[in-house]
Amino acid sequence: GQNIDQPTEMTATEGAIVQINCTYQTSGFNGLFWYQQHAGEAPTFLSYNVLDGLEEKGRFSSFLSRSKGYSYLLLKELQMKDSASYLCAVREVRSGGYQKVTFGTGTKLQVIP
Amino acid sequence: DTEVTQTPKHLVMGMTNKKSLKCEQHMGHRAMYWYKQKAKKPPELMFVYSYEKLSINESVPSRFSPECPNSSLLNLHLHALQPEDSALYLCASSQDWGREYNEQFFGPGTRLTVL
Predict the structure, then answer these.
(1) Does the structure show a pLDDT above 70 at B99?
(2) Under 8 Å CB-to-CB from A95, ≥6 apart: which residues?
(3) Nearest Cβ partner of B100 from A31, A44, A102?
(4) Which of B103, B110, B111, B112 to mutate to test the interface with A (most CBs of A within 10 A)?
(5) How far is it, in rounded angstroms, from Cα B83 to Cα B35?
(6) Is-contact A17 B83, C-beta < 8 A?
(7) C-alpha distance from residue A108 to each of A37, A61, A80, B88 (Å)
(8) Confidence check: pLDDT of A81 > 70
(9) How far is B9 from chain A (nearest CA, A)?
(10) Most buried residue, A3, A42, A67, B93, by most Cβ within 10 Å?
(11) At CB < 8 Å, which residues of chain A contact B?
């Protein structure tokens, strides 16, 4: 099974930088995704990490440390439209071909002026 | 076309009704998924179809019955549901199930209310 932890809520100011952390425990780790979900809408893909290090994509960056079971999503130059829930999702692979992506409970980010 | 569509957008049904949720994608993806999401909770995986075959059933009650008529369509048949089944039902697709980098594209969801 998996255990994925994220802070429940965060607040940050427009134009600032915010880091959303995710820790996980899994026996068959094979990739970590970050998704953004606005209230009442479907999740949309932001980033994917499978190797240690930082992946940068415009205003969004994601970092992974497999040895520590830790990832973070970094959002720069925050905009009001970035107010949403950010879901960390871990892909687990087991013997026999079983694989599954499990979502964390999400971090609700509020961007204030 | 990089869209996953779902119908209906909203559905209200009684506990004795039979209804179906529909999902469609034209991205050539060979893996399709059903998730259930309750308010303020993460999506929970229900079923995975890979190449039109059921690959994962996460111990979902039999009152939910998935069907994959072809590579573009995924249905979820509902029968004798309970009020606690009220939730947002999300369909997703990805290029395939076994590929390592496997971004899932989500549909807008069907908001289901069971009375």
Answers:
(1) no
(2) none
(3) A31
(4) B103
(5) 17
(6) no
(7) 9, 18, 13, 18
(8) yes
(9) 11
(10) B93
(11) 30-31, 33, 41-45, 48, 50, 87, 91, 97-106
Residue of A nearest to B88 (CA): A40
pLDDT on residue B7: 96
* Residue from B94, B96, B95, B90 nearest B112 by CA: B90
| SS3 at position A15 | coil
pLDDT band at B108 (very low <50, low <70, confident <90, very high): very high
Asked if B42 lies within 8 A of A91 by C-beta distance, the reply is: no
Contacts of B89 in chain A (CB under 8 A): none
Structure tokens at A97: 């071909």
pLDDT in tens, B31-82: 999 999 998 889 999 999 999 999 888 889 999 999 999 999 999 999 999 9
Of the candidates B91, B57, B61, which has an alpha carbon nearest to the alpha carbon of residue B79?
Answer: B61
